[in-house]
Structures are given as C-alpha cells and as structure tokens.
Amino acid sequence: MTIETLYEHFLKCKSVCTDTRNISENCMFFALQGGNFNGNKFAEDAIKNGASFAIIDDIEYKINDQYLMVDDVLIALQNLALFHRKHLNTPIISLTGSNGKTTTKELVNAVLSKKYKTTATKGNLNNHIGVPLTLLSMNNTTEIGIVEMGANHQKEIEFLSNIALPDYGLITNFGKAHLEGFGSIEGVIKGKSELYQHLKVNSKIIFVNHHDELQIKQVGAYDHIEVFGSKTQLLESQPYLSLSYEQQTIKSHLTGSYNYNNVCVAIALGEYFKVSTKDIVDAIENYIPSNNRSQIVNQNGHQIILDAYNANPSSMLAALSNFNQLKNENKVVILGDMFELGETAPEEHQHISDYTSDLKLKNAIFVGENFYNIKSKNSNSNYFKSFEDLNAHFGNFNFNQQLFLIKGSRGMALERVLNLI
C-alpha cells in the first residue's frame, strides 16, 4: 500500500490508536508488534470496538477491506507521521534533554495555549512510537505543535527530528542519563545535540539559555539563535520556586531550583510567540505538576516532595542539593535505584550514597539492588533490596511530621511509598 493511499484512509479517521484498550469510534488502529505481543492478533477486536481501519503486516489477519496490509506496521506509522507532518502548515517546537523534558513541555504548552490552539506530547510519549502519534494527533486547526523527544542511544534524536521536522528546538540540559546506551556524558552531549545539528542544517531556530555555557558551545557559530534567561532571576525555592520577571514575582507550584531553567524556557517561548506578560505569568502560576514530577503532597502530618517519575545521577544530585537547602530538622530521603547506567551503576550509586551521608538528615532510606549492593555502615542509612522489603519494615521507623524526598527511576515506582506513610 502506498503512503498516499494510507494517508487518504487516515484523513477519514478521527484519531490513531495502538492499544485496543483505548479504541475510540472511527479511529485507525496500528497493530504494532513487540517482544511479547503481536498486534495483528488484536486487529479484529479493534474493528469490532469501533476502529474504521486496522493497519496490519500479516496477511493471515486480513478479513476485509477494513484491514490494510503494509510491509511493517511500525515503519508505516512513522512514514505516515512524516507524510502528515509535511502536509501540516503548523510550526513545530521540539525539545529534548537529560532532565526536565516533560515538565518543560508542560510549562511551554501552558503558556502558548493562552494564545494559540496547541497540540503537545501526551505524558512522556517521546520515543519512536510516541513522536509519530503526537504528530498524527495534530490537524489543520493546530496552530503550534510541541513535540518532546527522548533517547537512550546515538542517532535516536536524529531519527525523531527527521520525522518531526521541527522549526524550533531546545535542549533542557546535558546530564548523566541513559549512560548504558550513550556510553558516557560525552556520548549524552553528542546524542542530544543531534537536535541542534538538524536545526542548523535546516536553518531553523535554536533556543539556548545564556547561563548554559556548554550548550552555547555546542551550538557554536550560528545565525538563528534565540538566547534567553537574562530577564529573570531566581528568588526562592523553599519549597516552591519563585522568580522575578518584568518587575513581577512569579510564584509557581514547582519545587526545586532545578526547575528554574524549565520556567525560563516557557517564558522565552511565550515572549517569542508574543503571548502577553500577564498570560505568561498566569500560565506558570497556575501550572500544577502531576504524575509524580516535583509534586508536593501533604499527607498525615508529613510534607512529601514526590519526584518519583524518574531519576539519573544528575537529577538525583540536583534534587538532593535542593532538599538539603530546605529549612526543616526532620528530613528523610527515600531513594530508589537509577536504571540504564550500565557498568557505571556501582560507581554512580556509591556517589549518591556518599553524598547523602554528608547531609544532615533524620534518616536516609535506599531501595533497590544497586543501592543494596553498595550499602554503607552509616547509622542514619537503611538499605532495602526491594520495595517489598521496605514495605515489610516501614512500620519500624515511626515517623512523625517529617519532610520527605521520594525519588527513583520509573521502574522502582516509588510513588507506592505514599501508601506507607
């Protein structure tokens, strides 16, 4: 089937779906395959539940003309997204980085949606499947598209950029994330900077914070740069972040000074796209973080900084540094393993453990095999091999009106600790 024919069918549909649990009326279902599943087997269910078409790559599952055969469903999804992107008269902003991508994307969307009809990546659907799905969720009414791009190896950002074809781009930061795939911090910088290379080759606009010398160095000599960050000043981050902007004080619901740059990005893009100062301030002040990202939760007399969506050595150190500055004598950290660090995992977990032991904490709790394997004899530190082990012993701590920091990689799912506190 040609991409032109597939596109004609796509235009007849209201949406695109890859999961039969989320089928909606008149959607186009893509029967993706994975290591443990064959989406072709679910094509019939998708049609029965309201899908207009099912895109399959196994002739055995073709029942009638609603089942559209392609050579490879994933490649068809990606090619359709690129074809659609080329037909959209919509400016696309792409962003990547080691930390803060999703929060930054949400802030940018909050600001720009004050003036424009925006379509942004949902959640963190930022990979080789999520980016195409984001693009295919846009239509001719979308005035600005915001596409988050994640990567754990070289050439992935390049690949995603060649699908999204961004007009504007930015990198939140370079940090020690996905070292198993990137190999080193130098590998991270090279991989993330593939977005810069794409934008430069196509003479598109790059946004870069004037405080970030490393990023400015990576951009190099280039004519289409928007430098930002000089109009704002960090005022406070205990526990909520506030900053000055245009002779006003913005009081956010975000915790941590590490979110300051994320807010600056949203302000810069708001200014560039001529959103009023009032609307920029209003959007940031009314943005409330969710999904376990920099949330502040008050529960049973405790205050909890819940930052359990993900973690890597850079974001962990930033969170601990910020937590250390908070004025409270009853501070407890509950930290989970950091994943995808490869052979550097023992060293990086040891570094976090050592750093934590130097802080004035009531207690430090480490969860996961990586931390357990490097456990120290610090009297204030407790190590548990799994969440189940922590669960079995949590009642022994007898916490009373504590300030908690909870952080770990997604696979640790440390938001479950809320049920224990």
UniProtKB/TrEMBL annotation:
The keyword Ligase applies. It is found in: Cytoplasm. GO terms for molecular function: ATP binding; UDP-N-acetylmuramoyl-tripeptide-D-alanyl-D-alanine ligase activity; UDP-N-acetylmuramoylalanyl-D-glutamyl-2,6-diaminopimelate-D-alanyl-D-alanine ligase activity. ATP binds at G97, S98, N99, G100, K101, T102, T103. Keywords: ATP-binding, Cell cycle, Cell division, Cell shape, Cell wall biogenesis/degradation, Cytoplasm, Ligase, Nucleotide-binding, Peptidoglycan synthesis. Its EC number is 6.3.2.10. InterPro entries: Mur-like_cat_sf, Mur_ligase_C, Mur_ligase_C_dom_sf, Mur_ligase_cen, Mur_ligase_N, MurCDEF_CellWall_CoF430Synth, MurE/MurF_N, UDP-N-AcMur_synth. It catalyses: D-alanyl-D-alanine + UDP-N-acetyl-alpha-D-muramoyl-L-alanyl-gamma-D-glutamyl-meso-2,6-diaminopimelate + ATP = UDP-N-acetyl-alpha-D-muramoyl-L-alanyl-gamma-D-glutamyl-meso-2,6-diaminopimeloyl-D-alanyl-D-alanine + ADP + phosphate + H(+). Pfam families: Mur_ligase (PF01225), Mur_ligase_C (PF02875), Mur_ligase_M (PF08245). Residues 293-371 form the Mur ligase C-terminal domain. GO terms for cellular component: cytoplasm. GO terms for biological process: cell division; cell wall organization; peptidoglycan biosynthetic process; regulation of cell shape. Pathway: Cell wall biogenesis; peptidoglycan biosynthesis. Residues 15-60 form the Mur ligase N-terminal catalytic domain. Residues 96-269 form the Mur ligase central domain. Involved in cell wall formation. Catalyzes the final step in the synthesis of UDP-N-acetylmuramoyl-pentapeptide, the precursor of murein. HAMAP family: MurF (MF_02019). Belongs to the MurCDEF family. MurF subfamily. This is UDP-N-acetylmuramoyl-tripeptide--D-alanyl-D-alanine ligase. It comes from Psychroserpens burtonensis.
